[in-house]
Amino acid sequence: MSNYKNEEEVDLGSLFLIIGRGFSKLFNFIGKIFTSIFYFFIEILLFFKKNFKKLGIAFVIGAIIGLIIELNEEDRYSSNLLVQTNFNSARQLYSNVDFYNNLVKQKKANVLSEIFKISLEEAKSLKKFRVNPIINGNDVITTYDDLILQIDTATVRSYPFSEFKRTFTKYNYKVHDIEVQSSKQDVFSKLDEIIISSITENKYFNKLKELTNENLNRTDALLRKNLIQADSLHKIYKRVLLEEAKVASQGTNIDLGNSQKNNKELELFSTTLNINQELKSVSEEKTEKSEIINVVSNFQTIGHKIQGVSQNKAFQLALLSLSLMIFYLLLIKLNKYLESYSRNKG
Fold first, then answer.
1. Whose CA is closest to 301, among 133, 211, 205, 182?
2. What percent of the chain has pLDDT over 70?
3. What pTM was computed for the model?
4. Where are the domains of the chain?
C-alpha cells in the first residue's frame, strides 16, 4: 500500500512538472512575441529619427508641387442623380455611365456635346462620370424572399441565404447613385434626361415593362373580383345567420353549431384580409414598375464645390512623395543588408 502511494505521488509530481514546463514555455513564447513587437516599433522610430530630414524635405517638396497644381487647376463641382432600376436595367446603366466616362478620359468633347445636346464648351467642362449602388442590406433580404417564393422547398434547401448573398452583385441593389463632376457649376440639369432616356428607350426593357404591367393589371383585376365575391359571401352569410336567429328565437331549440359558424365567419374575414394585403402588394409593385427607371432625386441645378483633404492635391502629393522616399530608403537599407549577408557568407 505504501509503495502504491509513493508511485501515485511520483506520477502526480511528474504531471505537475510537465504542466509547469508547458506554462513556462507558453509564457516565454508570449513574452518573445511582445518583445519582437516592441523591437519592431523601436526600429521604426529609429528609422524615422535617422531619416527625419530626408522625409521632411520629401513631404515639403510634394506639398509645394501639389499646391502649385491646385492653384493652376480649375475648381471642380459635383452633382448626384439617384435612380431606382427595374427589369435588370442596372447593368446597362453602368455600361452607359462607363462609356460617358471613357469619352471624358479620351477628351471626346465633340461626342459628349452631341450625346447630351450641350455646347462644346460645356462638354469640355465635364471631368468625370461615376455610378455606385446605394448599399442596403434590406435589398439582399427582400430579393432572396422573392426568390424563395418562386422556387420549390428542395431548391431553397440547396441554395442557402449565405450562398445567395455571396453572389449578390452591385447590379442587384435597387437604388444607384450617378455622380458627375464638372468645372462648370450649372451644367448638371442638362444631363439627367439623356442618361435616363438611354435606358428607357431600349426596346427590350420596354417589352419587359409592358409584359410585367399586363400581368400586374390582370392580377389586380382578379384580386378585385375575388374581393367582391368574398364580400358578397360575407353579406349572404350574415343574412343566413339573421334568419336562423329569428327562427331560433321562436322556439326552444339549442344551437350546437354556433362554434362552427364563428369559425366560418373568421375564415371569410381572414380571406378578405389576405386579398386586401395582396392587392396592396400588387398596387405597390405597379407603382414601382410603371417605369424602367424611377428617379429618386434629380441632379442639383447648381453643383457643390468638391473640397476636403482627400481631394487636396497638396496633401495627396505630399503623402505620395513621403511614401516614395520611405520606399527608396528601405530599398537602400535592404541592399546594404544583402551585401553584408553576402560578405559574411563568403
1. 182
2. 82
3. 0.65
4. 2-71+314-345, 76-134+174-305
User: pLDDT tens for residues 244-273?
Assistant: 666 666 655 545 455 555 566 677 777 778
| CA distance readout (Å), 102 to 75, 157, 205 | 21, 44, 25
pLDDT digits (tens, 9 = 90+) for 267-282: 777 777 887 888 888 7
Average pLDDT over residues 233-252: 68
The Cα–Cα gap between 261 and 267 comes to 10
